[in-house]
Design a protein that fits this description.
10 helices; Quinone Oxidoreductase, Chain A, domain 1; six-stranded parallel β-sheet; binds NADP nicotinamide-adenine-dinucleotide phosphate; 2 domains; about 25% helix; Rossmann fold; alpha/beta
Amino acid sequence: MTSDENHQWRLARRPIGNIQDGDLVWDQESIPSPNDGEVLVRTIYLSLDPTNRIWMSDMDQYMPPVKIGEVMRGGAMGEVLETKHPGYKVGDIVTGLLGWQTYSTVHGDNIRMSIPHQKGTPLPAWMSVLGLTGVTAYFGMLDICEPRRGETLVVTGAAGAVGSIAGQIGKIKGLRVVGISGTDAKCLWLKEKCGFDATINYRSADVSAALRTSCPDGIDCVFENVGGSVFDEILSQINLRARVALCGLIGQYNATEAVPGPYRFANVLMKRARIEGFIVSDFAKRWGEAIKELSTWLADGKLTYKVDIVDGLQNAPTAVKKLFDGSNDGKLLVRVAAEP
Ligand SMILES: NC(=O)c1ccc[n+]([C@@H]2O[C@H](COP(=O)([O-])OP(=O)(O)OC[C@H]3O[C@@H](n4cnc5c(N)ncnc54)[C@H](OP(=O)(O)O)[C@@H]3O)[C@@H](O)[C@H]2O)c1
């Protein structure tokens, strides 16, 4: 790989089921030059997210699907190398939808400045707890779950980038927090480092019985990341006027047939519960509010986070699969270039 070319992953075909070799193709072109209003950015960290699988598909979604032949869409952080936008100078660290590529030109209005006011915070923090996944947890918990001290919260995908922060916000707000995750090691981390009150390994436990034991007063808030049979069990144990923040359904992003359920839907009626889907971009105008409070909690030692960094853009299509077999251990990032 030479540094005077822009290396890219392009979508070659829509995956069927799990992402396969050949769904994305490795390509290169010359490094682009910015037009008026644009900046040239060298990518440092690429964020790999479950929604990459949604964007690769042509299912009904919240953004247009990536077109066949296009550079794969992806959130990323990079360094400004050249600028034709008054809001940025060379050397600024910015984040935005820079794509699965080593260099990009992007309009200055479509990116945001990362960091600076807090020197000493590692760059990966701005791609995790202080980035999109942290902000997702923040608004999902506070605006959708509307937590009240003393209530019980259940988080699925609890050890992940979003789930682990959502659960810790639950603790900050005085809730009993129960996390559901897929390995004993992740469950241990949630209890010992993130302060969760109880955890359930959905692969080995009787989830229905474990929920009854862990949530003796029933479930008031749900931060849902997965869907499927575990979500059904949760719905069967909700309290009157429970709130469900429907953040994600990762258990079905690779589905090749229509997904049935939830089967316990009637309980939403019986318990006058509210299930509300949300996308973090709905809260774009309030991003600063979330970052301010998350930064304070982080500085005060109230938030713990983990990042799982894979080296090399060429490894992105293999690495993204970790999200779907649970082998990622924290916010999944690709280090595309060394930090400046
Ligand atoms: N609404 C929004 O704006 C928004 C923004 C960001 C993310 N999200 C959603 O939030 C969820 C978590 O995303 P993330 O970025 O934080 O990823 P993550 O949780 O760090 O990684 C994905 C995790 O999902 C779990 N998982 C994968 N397939 C599963 C399955 N079939 N059944 C049960 N668990 C499964 C695995 O953990 P285990 O080891 O525990 O199985 C895996 O480690 C996703 O659903 C994503 O789409 C939504």
